[in-house]
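[agent] plan:
  1. take the single chain provided in the ticket
  2. run structure prediction with default settings
  3. attach structure tokens to the ticket
  4. add a short note for the reviewer (M.T.)
[agent] executing step 1
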Amino acid sequence: MFASDVDSERATSIEDYQNTCADFIIDISKDYKDWVDRYKLSADEENTRKSTIDNVVKTTNDFIFRFGDTIKKIDIIMNDGINKMAENTAGYPFKFDIYANNSSRYIIHDKQSIKINLKAVPRTGRQIRICNYDKDQVFLISSSNPVEFNYSNTCFESSDLLDDFILVKPKKFDTTDAISITIKAEEVENDVTMESRGYTSLFIIK
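[agent] step 2 finished; step 3 output follows
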């Protein structure tokens, strides 16, 4: 995470902090696009990844100004955008998508539990499964209010196709809540992890 306590302490207003974080998103996107250049990809793949990063910048900053009415929410939205840029810089070697409310990545949701659909397809000769984000966390979560999760252990079992659901249950609702969640999937061959990728989604509950 890149949220800066120093920056938030220096901010004189919410508007000031919105502008600071929006500028930071623009600046750091240049570093991610530089990394894309270093991968020496095909022209089409390079353009796709850079275009996706530009779209992340545009949508993240739009959400910062539309929904970032507290320092905490601005930080959640900003860090969510940074995670998305990192994910799309690295790309996805296997098919991995997450949907809710017929949308992906940036999702506006009513004040009720969120049903997240996980879909992943491994490459030939491999299997797929959800894995823990790290040794201490099943998912990477940042939210303006506490949330609970319901999920089946079957999505953590290797299979030829992943099509499962996770239920996110906010414990309470403010006027507008922001929730960022990163779910990680791994591609497996002979029970050995070959590739893993995270997929970050931002939910605005209003």
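[agent] step 4 note for reviewer: Residues 14-38 form the longest helix (25 residues).
[agent] ticket updated
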